[in-house]
Design brief:
The protein is α/β, with parallel strands linked by helices. It has a single domain, classed as Alpha/Beta hydrolase fold, catalytic domain (Rossmann fold, 3-Layer(aba) Sandwich). 37% of the residues lie in helices and 19% in strands. Helix 3 links the parallel strand 6 and strand 7. Helix 2 crosses helix 3, helix 4 packs antiparallel against helix 5 and helix 5 packs antiparallel against helix 7. The longest helix has 15 residues.
Length: 263
């Protein structure tokens, strides 16, 4: 199967990624979560049929993608710009965690371009985070802003969000992913603020597959429930023994679920 790398300029930034498979069908765009990169999808992609054309890329500020410091941006707008440059009119979108907010934002802004949605442990933009989440996030940010990125990464690895990964066989993989994260978003994040996404979801008509872990952090569990309540065409698969990082914990299972859904 052919793989074509790309490097695309967007407003104030550059997005790096790759396309795999033919150009005839509707491509499946895989969007990673916070602190990750397109490599996070490797194990899932191996479980997808080779007949599904895919595209993976690093969101601005992650992996190999970059942006101008101080230039306000939106990950959803970056995704739409990427589709424009690559001349992709219609897509299936799959987002993990932060990537879930990215693909939902794209679906809200340009519903005619989105055939189907897959949301994996998704985040909602503009979410009012719990006090416990905010406190832990501030601890990580303080360490990063004080110049101790190693401590920030350690605190992120130790976050309760990743408890099920740390206790399982893939703790080393998570540690490698976090070690590869530059961490600049803990110091400065130029993302544009957005109105609460939870209040706008009902306008999304695309058939949606929602994949969640029963042991995920409570904020994400509540966000998933809001999605189920708001979206008119959503199917949820909830793994009671998994946590947040389904791309690490259940790559084969979610690959099979995604394959069946988009097919």
């Amino acid at each position: 199967m052919s793989t074509t790398p790309f490097r695309v300029a967007v407003d104030g930034g550059v997005l790096v990624g790759e396309r795999t498979g033919n150009r005839d069908g509707v491509p499946l765009i895989l969007v990673h979560g916070f602190g990750g990169s397109r490599r996070d999808w490797d194990a899932v992609a191996q479980a997808l049929p080779k007949t599904i054309p895919t595209l993976t890329y690093d969101q601005r500020g992650f992996g190999e993608s970059d942006g101008e410091e101080g230039h306000a941006f939106s990950h959803a707008e970056d995704l739409a710009a990427l589709l424009d440059v690559l001349d992709i009119a219609r897509v299936d979108l799959c987002g993990m965690s932060l990537g879930g907010a990215t693909v939902l934002g794209c679906a809200l802004a340009a519903p005619e371009r989105v055939r189907q949605l897959v949301l994996v442990s998704p985040m909602l933009g503009g979410w009012p985070w719990s006090a416990e989440w905010v406190a832990l996030w501030k601890e990580i940010g303080r360490a990063a802003r004080n110049g101790d990125m190693a401590q920030a990464r350690t605190k992120w690895f130790d976050h309760p969000l990743f408890a099920t990964v740390r206790e399982g066989p893939h703790a080393d993989l998570l540690q490698q992913q976090i070690a590869a994260f530059a961490g600049q978003q803990w110091v400065r994040d130029d993302q544009l603020p957005e109105p609460p996404m939870a209040t706008r979801l009902s306008s999304i008509e695309s058939p949606t597959l929602l994949l969640t872990g029963g042991l995920d952090w409570p904020d994400f569990r509540i966000m998933a429930d809001r999605i189920v309540d708001a979206l008119p065409h959503v199917r949820r698969i909830d793994d009671p023994t998994a946590g947040h990082m389904l791309t690490i914990e259940r790559p084969v299972e979610i690959g099979a679920a995604i394959s069946a859904f988009v097919a």
